[in-house]
Amino acid sequence: MTDATKPSSPYDLPDVSGLVVGVLGGTGDQGRGLAYRLAEAGQQVVIGSRSADRAANAAAELGHGVRGADNARCARESDIVIIAVPWDGHKALLETLRPELVGKIVVDCVNPLGFDKKGAYALKPEEGSAAEQAALLLPESRVTAAFHHLSAVLLQDPGVEQVDTDVLVLGEERAATDAVQALAGRIPGMRGVYAGRLRNAHQVEALVANLISTNRRYKAHAGLRVTDV
């Protein structure tokens, strides 16, 4: 495993092609989609699940050299770990994996949402956001937030050659956010854009509720673009 190097300018991102990416929740739709796209781009990918057998089966279906493992092994063997689990399992998972995630770049893409007859709406965690909860639970990890606004349908569709969207990346450490921006840029059509510190993560996570409403109205798979950067 190698370390991402700090770039010399805002537009000079590090080479992350040699890093191993773990996807916790890699058997769910969003996790599978991210694993597929990153592996297709040539990234080494390990997907994690509570069941190693389930992870291995999902990895075999994805191909592209994706490996499957239980969550702890996935975290240990990865340089960058993407958290793509349902909100209701977020805290418990991170509490159990704290030792394995020490020193790792952790990318939280969990969206705390509720649903009722009016549709999706944002939840406000006590810590402020899912990413801030992760940072409190993982004080020795390099926590970032990204990949919130991606369509799992587009990610998993092999007929879609490019996923045209920007990925908002938040975090406290410049080298970590630059590495995640570079990772997003490995996927054709995607661009990572720095969007502030973790204290701003709630509105980024909450925006998914608006995108769900947009998608339902227009029967689309909407993404985001940031202009003039």
UniProtKB/TrEMBL annotation:
Keywords: Oxidoreductase
Stated name of the protein: NADPH-dependent F420 reductase
Cited NCBIfam families: npdG
Record has Metal-binding as a keyword: no
GO function term, MF aspect, one: oxidoreductase activity, acting on NAD(P)H
Residues of the Pyrroline-5-carboxylate reductase catalytic N-terminal domain: 21-112
A single GO cellular-component term on record: plasma membrane
Gene Ontology terms: biological process: copper ion import; NADPH regeneration
Pfam families: F420_oxidored
Entry keyword Chloroplast: no
